Amino acid sequence: MNSNTPPARASFLIAAVRHIGIVLLVAAAVATVFTMWSPVSLLPSGAARAISIALATQVGVVTTPEPPTATPASLPLVGIVAGHSGPQNDPGAVCPDGLTEAGINLDVANRVKATLEQGGYRVDLLNEFDDRLNGYQALALVSIHADSCDYINDIATGYKVARALYDKSPDKSDRLVACLTDRYAKRTGMNFHSGSITLDMTQYHGFDELDAAVPAAIIEVGFLNLDRDMLTNHPDLVAQGVAEGVLCYLRNEPAP
User: Fold this and answer.
1) How many CB atoms lie within 10 A of CB 168?
2) Angle in degrees, 0-180, between the axes of helices 101-118 and 235-250, rounded to the nearest 10
3) Burial (0-12, 13-18, 19+ Cβ within 10 Å), 126
4) Mean pLDDT lowest for which of 12-26, 106-120, 236-250?
5) Domain 77-250 falls under CATH 3.90.45.10
């Protein structure tokens, strides 16, 4: 029989299709087995478990960015001058035993600075002839001094406060003076010695150097002679009286 007859050709095609099907089935089975033997499953069981847990814990994790660091607001500024301090070597009044006005002033000024900073203010501690005083700007400025160590008379005791004679902000400076006068007397129990306010106080050089809008005052915290005990043994009370006067002004507290 001729092999090219139609029945023979049909049988050949059927056999070819059968072989192709078998090949495809074998390929599918091999692919399935290969997929089951992935690299993860080839790892030791402990390592594969650790990897699975790590991958699982990453699902749904949201990284929260760090909040920006807030810039602190600038604290209100106050200037405190320690009278006669600085490189000019002017000790101010000097007692026979070596006690100097400059030393008293600086001690009190440092204590005032600490108290005001505890109250939430930024404080510049300034020298007597400080370059920063030129055009200086602040909520207020107070210059701290003490009076003579010489014996004058029995009434040469007490403190005194003054503003510039030609103050460009007289209303504000007057209130600063009133606060200092009132609070210092209440804290120290000392008397206001108004009779010895001099031109050295009302025409104090620092007043002319400040910005015109800055209220300013000068206080002489006592006489180095008759008020020596207060100035040397109770500087905390002296400084507290000055600081409370400044705070009275800054906080707009009433003062007679």
Assistant:
1) 16
2) 50
3) buried
4) 12-26
5) no
A 10 A CB-CB count for 210 gives 21
Q: What is the pLDDT of residue 68?
A: 56
Q: Are 92 and 100 contacting, i.e. CB atoms less than 8 angstroms apart?
A: yes
Q: Pull the structure tokens for residue 231.
A: 């100035």
**Contact (Cβ atoms closer than 8 angstroms) between residue 178 and residue 255:** yes
b/e burial code for range 23-48 (CB count within 10 A of at least 16 → b): eeeeeeeeeeeeeeeeeeeeeeeeee
**Angle separating helix axes 170-188 and 235-250, nearest 10 degrees:** 140
- CA–CA distance, 177 with 181 (Å, rounded to integer): 6
Is the whole model's pTM more than 0.90, yes or no?
no
Asked if 213 and 167 count as a contact pair (C-beta separation under 8 A), the reply is no
Which has more pLDDT, 30 or 130? 130
SS3 category, 171: helix
Torsion over CA of 93, 207, 109 and 191, rounded to 10 degrees?
70
Residue-wise burial string across 176-196, b where 16 or more C-beta atoms lie within 10 A, e elsewhere: bbbbbbbbbbebbebeebeee
